[in-house]
Structure formats: C-alpha cells, structure tokens
Amino acid sequence: MLVLTESQVTKFLVAAEDSRYKTLYHLAITTGMRYSELIGLKWSDIDWDRGTIKVQRQLQYIPHKGYQFNRPKTRSGIRTIMLGKTTLSKLRQHYNENAYEDQTGENLIFVNGIGTQIYFKRFHKDFKRVLKNAGLPNIRFHDLRHTAATLMIANGIPVVIVSKILGHSKPSVTMNIYAHASVEMQSEAAQLMENLVTPIPISLKEIQKEDSHR
C-alpha cells in the first residue's frame, strides 16, 4: 500500500487539470470511492440541495459479456457521502461541460472521449501520465482510496465516520487496514502531551517560592 502526502495530492490534482478525468480524480481523493463505483455513478445519484452523492452500484467489465452494473457486495457498500462545496462546484462544471457526451443512455457522470463506458486500460494510461507529470511515485489508482482514508484519519476524522464514507462493514475493518495512520496520530498525541509538561521547573522549592510572592 502506497499513499500520497497532502503536498503530493496537491501536485497530483494540479497535474490532472489537463485531463478529461480531472473531476473523477478529485472525487476519488475526496471520497475514497473505488474505481468501479466512480465509473458507475449517474447524475441522478447527486442530491444538489443536500450536497450528497449516493453510491449504490458498481460498473464492472465481465469477460465475454461486456460492462454490467452490479450492486455493492455488502449492505454497507451502499452509502450516501456528503460532498464539500469545492467538489460540488467541480461536479457542476463537469456537468455543464460534459453531460451531453454520454452515449450509453445510462446518464453516467463519467464517460470516455466517445461517450461510452470508461475502459480501464486507457484510463490507466492517463492516470500514469498524470503521476509522471507531477513527479510522483508510480502508485496504483486504488492507492488514491488508501490516500483518502489515511489523510482523513491523520486529520482527526473519527474512524467510525471514515468507515462509513469508505463503505466498510465496521470500523474495525478500517482500523485494521489503516493502523499506520492511527500510530502516527498516537505519536503526535504523545508529543503534544510532552510539550505540555516540558520544561519542568528545576525544583519544588522554586514553585513554592513563586507561589509565596503571588
């Protein structure tokens, strides 16, 4: 598992500005959605008034059958995610610029250059191009999900909330996968407490002397 730092995420998103998939990349990093969930999103999944997006299907390629919609494997995989103002703004812009491109009849949010389902091999090529242009490690697309989860936990978002956003069955699953982020937080907490008690006065007499003059 490889994750990007906050500064690396910024570099990635800046480098992705010239990609037709820039909004998909933004949504991947801010929500931690899986690839199959992202390409299966429909415009009807967005509640513009509430600022949410519902994950309720996956779009997967089945050999000899083509692309098919499937329900998430678990009930927890069906979830509603709150979106930030910037993300909603980017989705509105994407709608205004690209909604007419969908030729699938499925009202998909993300399609390829000819308006059909995104083919992973071509998408993967674009993803690697963005990484290279940003001067970043050669990570997998799925590592953006790990990046999202790690940064959420590292920035103090409760694990129970992160678990719901990711669609995990229970918080313990999230903790088992992202224990490294928890360890980093514990280290930061330890240093914070250390700072609270350092430096300690040289002697008890000095404390008593200071108190006597108050």
UniProtKB/TrEMBL annotation:
InterPro entries from the UniProt entry: DNA_brk_join_enz, Integrase-like_cat_sf, Integrase_catalytic, Tyrosine_recombinase_XerCD
Cross-referenced Gene3D superfamilies: Intergrase catalytic core
Molecular-function GO term, any one: DNA binding
Statement: the UniProt record of this protein carries the keyword Heme: no
Residue stretches making up the Tyr recombinase domain: 1-191
Record keywords, A-Z: DNA recombination
Residues of the signal peptide: none
Protein name as it appears in the record: Integrase family protein
